[in-house]
Amino acid sequence: MLRPKILGLFRLFRFELSFTAGVCVILGELLALGTLPTITEIILGFLSIFFISATSLILNDYFDLEMDRINAPERPLPAGLVTEREVVLLSIVVAVLGLITSYLISLEALLVVILVWAIGLLYNWRFKKAGLIGNLMVSFSVGMTFIFGGIVVNKPFETIVWLFAIILILADLGEEIAADAMDIEGDRQAGSRSLALVIGRENALKISGAAFLLVVAASILPFLFGWLERIYLFPILLMDLVILYSTGKLLDPRTANRRIYIRWIYLAGLVAFLIFIFIRMFR
Asked: For the chain, is the Cβ count within 10 Å smaller at the N or the C terminus?
């Protein structure tokens, strides 16, 4: 009985999402500095956002239990692997770890982490079913990972950092809207006011597609203005090609299992960021 419970608790972290948030912080540090940050800055920056992101994701399972019974019955809580009390306790422990690691960076870092934590709590508690407002809250928090990276290395106002933060906000907003469009039946039964329910699935996907196209357009700007060297063009173009292809599939009603293309876009961004970091570290 203990092993399934431990595995269930670990699954609540949704490690790929929390890990990606931490990677974005490191990328923000690299963009702000133009060179490698210290090991301490890398570790503390990564862990702070990893823990706070995990806290929001854990709370999401707690507050989203009824919708998950319909949309994702295999999740640890609806599947009975963990109890609601255990989920709340885990979220508290992980949040404290995030606050401690951010405090070790600076007071500014701690304040940003508290802000992101508060937005995550409000979203899960009150705004999960608020449609576009909820989507924007999540996307803002995701975009803050780049700004946080700049704060970690004491350079929070670098133009390139803010541009990438905007790109990340647009990409996440597109993913949020598209994911809601795929979960439209469960959202309807749960009383959600998702954009797909308000204006229709296909119209919502068009707005999602527009956000993804803006990501592609914005990702080229650093090269046009000379903010990034051409060596970084490869991972960006790789990401853009996957986004364009996946967006086309998402907008085609004949596409089977359109949900998988949302994941492709997410993975393309993650791979591009990892390649970017690799190039920066070893060139």
From this structure: N
pLDDT digits 0-9 by tens, 242-262 = 999 999 999 998 888 888 999
The ranges assigned to domains in the chain are: 2-282
d(CA 232, CA 277): 10
Check if the beta carbon of residue 32 is closer than 8 Å to that of residue 158.
Answer: yes
Question: What is the pTM for the complete model shown?
Answer: 0.86
What does the pLDDT look like over 207-251, one tens digit per residue?
Answer: 999 999 999 999 999 999 988 889 999 999 999 999 999 999 999
Domain 2-282 has CATH 1.10.357.140: yes
Are the beta carbons of 49 and 25 closer than 8 angstroms?
A: yes
Amino acid letter at 119? I
Distance separating alpha carbons of residues 70 and 51, to the nearest angstrom = 28
The CB density around residue 16, as the number of other CB atoms within 10 Å, is 12
Closest CA to 271 of 237, 244, 247: 237
